Amino acid sequence: MAGNNPTPTEYIQHHLQNLTFGYHPENGWSIAHSAQEAADMGFWALHLDTLGWSIGLGVLFLWLFRKIGKAATTGIPGVMQNFVELMVEFVDNSVKDTFHGKSKLIAPLSLTIFCWVFLMNLMDLVPVDFLPMLAQRVAAMFGADPAHVYFKVVPTTDVNATLGMALSVFALIIFYTIREKGFSGFIGELTLHPFNSTNKLVQALFVPVNFLLETVTLIAKPISLALRLFGNLYAGELIFILIAMIGLWQLPLHFTWAVFHILVITLQAFIFMMLTIVYLAMAVEKH
């Protein structure tokens, strides 16, 4: 950790720091050895642990579902085939009940979002010291100082990851709105609602008010989507870290919180998926 005998504050800060790579004014392109160095690297620094686990878990999802899909039979299905069919049917019904437009993308997108976010959230159940200490030992084998090795394993506790996913959903919202209603329809939604009048002069006065309200509503969608997921998982990870500091009672408390947290990680994946479907459904609705 941050030393042989870190203080509680150092222990928590170490666990909440990402493995950051970027351009440092003094060290050039390098991996940050402290939180201050990571901050000095600025906006364009990369969180290698977040990227690695996000991509790795995404590849795991694609490989697993593809493998099971190719091996699917019409006879008595196995446990994994049953699970995949259940997931596909669950997501498909959720999309049919909420999204009433025409798009071949929404159902696969929703399935990907739910499974991917769930897998990233699931990493929160791994004991907080296990993978970071393993990373430190591997780094020590290559001559690195273990105290300067940071390794966060839950991508959704990094606001950059959740905001990146939310901005992708936001881009789809804009795309579907313009595709279904045209650019003029998109501008009309921002300027002619919620206040409108048959009097053109009064309507002209409403335009800036409508634009301000609708723009705030539009921008709030990706921000709330990202922060809701980040906040819940960050708080859950912080509780696991605090439990790890207790010592003797760590295992029973970790197990108790993990059982409850299974509901949280599943629910947050479901909420992220459902809000994506709802926002895209709103984008294709014609008033």
From TrEMBL:
What transmembrane ranges does the database entry give? 44-65, 105-123, 159-178, 229-249, 255-281
Where in the cell? Cell membrane; Membrane
Give the record's GO CC terms: plasma membrane; proton-transporting ATP synthase complex
| Single annotated GO MF | proton-transporting ATP synthase activity, rotational mechanism
Database matches in SUPFAM superfamilies: F1F0 ATP synthase subunit A
The way it spans or sits in the membrane comes to: Multi-pass membrane protein
GO biological process terms, alphabetically, are: proton motive force-driven plasma membrane ATP synthesis
Keywords attached to this entry: ATP synthesis, Cell membrane, CF(0), Hydrogen ion transport, Ion transport, Membrane, Transmembrane, Transmembrane helix, Transport
Q: Which HAMAP family does the protein's record reference?
A: ATP_synth_a_bact
- Name of this protein: ATP synthase subunit a
Species of origin: Halomonas ventosae
Gene for this chain: atpB
